[in-house]
């Protein structure tokens, strides 16, 4: 149980275009999901907290107009990178909080490459 | 600000031997959770072990155990009988109060055959 999926696993897009990444909790409902960004050989950096039915809370330094987060249902959160640029190339990971209210379950990640 | 320190960027261990990865954190909370995650080359985050701060007994999961020293704010991970599949990045992550997980910088573990 407690499986989280992400789609796509790898995406290549051209500079200036937008790309959407989906995060789904497959066998549980998640009122809270998190989005992380990870550069090569670095740790996970929290970008935002996504709560179902409300606006996401962004960490300091994260542009909310560039990284749009929508948590429209208890099993789906989406991250849209708008007007992507090469510096947005990174590994994006989502996680969802389980039923017990504290443990996070992680998706497999999405590699974004902006050319 | 919450801080997590993993002071060993890289560690290596011989197969079948034991290795300990260190982690210290800073918090004023009294009740919280502590996690160790493993990130293999696939980059999937895998939960290795969790510890509830209110429990005095150290958590154990098969070959993985922790040494939790609450007063010292220390949470080390011991891997016994190391296997080649244990090679990965290991992240310490406290869950403190109502804040999201805070990840340390990680320790890259190599296992030598």
Structure, described:
The complex is a heterodimer of chains A (115) and B (113). In chain A, the strands form two sheets. In chain A, strands 2, 4, 5, 6, 9, 10 and 11 form a seven-stranded mixed beta sheet that branches. Chain A has a four-stranded antiparallel beta sheet with strand order 1-3-8-7, with no helix packed on it. Chain A is an all-beta fold. The radius of gyration of chain A is 13 Å and the shape is globular. Chain A has strands at 4-7, 10-13, 19-25, 32-38, 44-51, 57-58, 67-73, 76-81, 90-97, 104-106, 110-114. By secondary structure, chain B is an all-beta fold. Chain B has strands at 3-5, 10-14, 19-21, 24-26, 32-39, 46-52, 60-61, 64-69, 74-79, 88-96, 107-112. In chain B, the strands form three sheets. Chain B has a five-stranded mixed beta sheet with strand order 2-11-10-5-6, with no helix packed on it. In chain B, strands 3-9-8-7 form a four-stranded antiparallel beta sheet, with no helix packed on it. Chain B is built from no helices and eleven strands. Chain B starts with a strand and ends with a strand. In chain B, a hairpin with a 4-residue loop joins strand 8 and strand 9 (74-79). Chain B is globular. Classes of the chains: A mainly beta (115), B mainly beta (113).
